[in-house]
Design goal:
about 650 residues; mainly beta; Jelly Rolls; 6-stranded antiparallel β-sheet; 2 helices; 47 strands; flat
């Protein structure tokens, strides 16, 4: 039996980095104050006892004799920026920093640290003072997560004083295993009132209650009397994508909790890109109806927003509830769940081949368990560049269906030759609006002479309209279904128009809508205006590259003339030779398929990562197989025909 081996996923293709907790220079203070700088004001002192730490040596910042509660800090590496590489850290990554701390009294705002991102000579950004609330007086280990600035090459660790008290530090370090960056919006739960939030309004007011949120602190925008109001995160300073762990071009879930306190309309959200913006996002009535609780109770609202490829920074902007008072809490950005670690699998499959006679024909491989019921094997393949498909679940029977390109006409009676049940109408066409169109026996551009007249004349100042429309699928009563459209096919719409008059406020336009079997719109061309020279000859209008969306089975053609609410509004146009033609393929014929054994190498890819597959007849002479493959959070597969008794494969993630 042939065995195919997939070695460890990253074998030979990526470097290995040892990840572990590491201390800053003399971070355990076993060498006293070596490698630590100290800065203070107004009488703070520092000492480095050799015993009593966690364990043994430690640092003590004493503020009990300070004349004022200004500041006192320790600074790593003798107050010089320390290279990231010396700690095994990378710019733009998020890490867990740790330290042991002890205070003689428990309470809030005790000690803590500040982490600073630096170049070799200048500070770039920092974490701010990360204070702690202690619940006891014994040594305890504390952790803080921090994302190093993408432009940083160095770092500083700064243990902080406690006002009018003593604080002790030991074992100051970092775990250099990068964390998945979790987007952090400062004061996202409003537990610090309005800190880190800006408010802009045209009328409404904002408040920051300490209770009643989800839970506790929240923000309240009162727009009951009208106007507009917005909160802007991070004090209206755009946040970099790198600091949030976001990637330009990707889609993320922006989430916030809301509760309507007055009125009936929840708020929404807007994300401002640098450059650009998402536009205002509010829940639809259908989304509101699907909420688990009434809007007057706390609900979690989620908005899917895509970041432009050019975006570098964002601002998160909760929006007011129109004519309502709304409470806000827990503003978050959710990251998609990370894919599982790279692990390749291999299995034996069947290669299905065929001879492609034409570069324009379409080929659909199929498989069957009984040579009777056939199922498509993957999507249809156009042309002769690819003549093999692979079946991961081999079947006993295979064939390939070949189709020749055809042009399919979906419109019916576009020259209006056939009258309707009422002679003034055309068969297959429906009149609409206030002034019905009229089928004319003469005056058309073709030999038959028939055409449709769209004519509007205002009665007083009342607006008017005249429209012809056709639902193509069953327009031909004698051949129901003949006008159906095929999802994925490309259609061209055209017609001829002869302008008779074009008066004040008169407009003409047309639209193609794609509908499903129950009449729901799956997509449309949008309204397109048209006009021709009054008294001139017939003019052709067309729209190509109309692709039928998934789920659509029929097209709705609309050609309309309308006037505004003015006296004397009028217009008239003749319409002829309306056509909707699709480029598709005709009925298929079966080709003989060939089968051969093959192997499939698969792995779950990650967006932003690149991969290479290599093969070898042994475990030393590896050759590139399949080129570089970009990940997109889907399963990737490569295939190889079995041509030798044994072969090895490996998948590598490129650096």
């Amino acid at each position: 039996m042939i065995k195919y081996l997939v070695p460890a996923a990253l074998l030979g293709l990526t470097g290995l980095t040892t990840a572990a907790p590491v201390l800053f220079p003399n971070g355990d203070f076993e060498n006293g104050g070596t490698s630590w700088g100290f800065a203070q004001a107004n009488g703070h002192t520092v000492s480095y006892p050799a015993t009593g730490g966690s364990p043994n040596g430690h640092a003590v910042i004493d503020g009990t004799a300070a004349t004022q509660t200004w500041f006192a800090v320790l600074i790593s590496n003798n107050d010089a920026p320390y290279p990231l590489t010396s700690l095994g850290l990378q710019a733009g990554k998020r890490y867990k920093f740790f330290y042991d701390m002890q205070t003689p009294t428990a309470g809030a705002n005790k000690g803590g640290i500040k982490i600073e991102s630096w170049t070799a000579t200048a500070g770039i950004s920092n974490s701010g003072d990360l204070r702690r609330t202690t619940t006891g007086t014994s040594w305890a280990t504390y952790e803080e997560e921090y994302t190093i600035d993408p432009a940083a090459t160095h770092i500083k660790m700064v243990p902080l004083w406690t006002s009018n008290d003593i604080v002790r530090f030991d074992d100051i370090g970092v775990d250099n295993t990068p964390l998945q960056t979790v987007p952090v919006i400062p004061n996202s739960g409003f537990e610090s009132g309005g800190a880190n939030w800006a408010f802009f309004a045209g009328g409404p007011s904002v408040s920051y209650p300490a209770g009643g949120g989800n839970p506790n602190g929240n923000a309240v925008i009162n727009a009951t009397s009208g106007g507009w109001g917005v909160l802007v995160a991070n004090n209206n300073v755009p946040m970099s994508l790198a600091s949030l762990g976001l990637t330009a071009g990707e889609t993320y879930t922006f989430q916030l909790d809301m509760k309507v306190l007055g009125g009936s309309n929840p708020g929404g959200i807007k994300v401002e890109f640098v450059p650009g913006f998402s536009g205002d996002r509010y829940y639809t009535p259908e989304q509101i109806a699907a909420l688990p609780n009434p809007v007057t109770e706390w609900n979690t609202y989620q908005f899917q927003i895509s970041l432009p490829a050019t975006c570098t920074r964002i601002q998160v902007v909760p929006l007011y509830g129109p004519m309502s008072t709304v409470a806000y809490d827990n503003v978050k950005i959710l990251l998609p769940a990370p894919p599982a670690p790279l692990a390749a699998t291999i299995k034996k499959v069947t290669a299905v081949g065929w001879t492609a006679a034409s570069a324009t024909n379409q080929y659909q491989p199929q498989q069957s368990d009984d040579d009777s019921v056939w199922m498509n094997l993957g999507p249809a393949i156009n042309g002769n560049a690819v003549t093999v498909a692979f079946d991961s679940e081999p079947s006993p029977f295979y064939r390939v269906m070949e189709s020749v390109p055809t042009v399919k006409a979906s419109g019916y009676n576009g020259n209006f030759t056939e009258p309707g049940t009422v002679p003034e109408n055309a068969d297959g066409w429906t009149p609409a609006q206030s002034q019905w169109p009229l089928r004319l026996e003469t005056g058309g551009r073709g030999d038959n002479g028939a055409c449709m007249q769209i004519k509007v004349l205002n009665v007083g100042a009342a607006p008017g309209g005249s429209e012809i429309q056709q639902n193509t699928k069953d327009a031909d009563r004698l051949n129901p279904g003949a006008g159906a459209v095929t999802p994925g096919d490309t259609y061209t719409f055209s017609f001829w128009a002869k302008q008779i008059s074009n008066g004040v406020s008169y407009e003409q336009r047309y639209k193609i809508s794609w509908l499903d079997d129950i009449g729901a719109i799956k997509g449309d061309s949008g309204w397109v205006g048209f006009t021709a020279t009054v008294g001139g000859d017939w003019t052709k209008f067309s729209r190509d590259n109309l692709v039928v969306p998934n789920g659509a089975t029929t097209a709705l053609i609309q050609i309309v003339g309308v006037t505004g609410a003015v006296g004397g509004g009028l217009g008239e146009v003749l319409i002829d030779d309306v056509s909707l033609q699709g480029a598709g393929f005709g009925s298929p014929t079966a080709l003989t398929a060939t089968m051969a054994p093959a192997v499939e190498v698969s792995w779950l890819s990650i967006t932003g990562k690149s991969y290479r597959v290599e093969s070898a007849p042994d475990l030393s002479d590896w050759m590139d197989f399949g080129g570089v493959i970009s990940g997109n959070n889907t399963t990737k597969s490569v295939y190889d025909l079995i041509t030798i008794p044994g072969k090895f494969y490996r998948v590598g993630e490129l650096p």
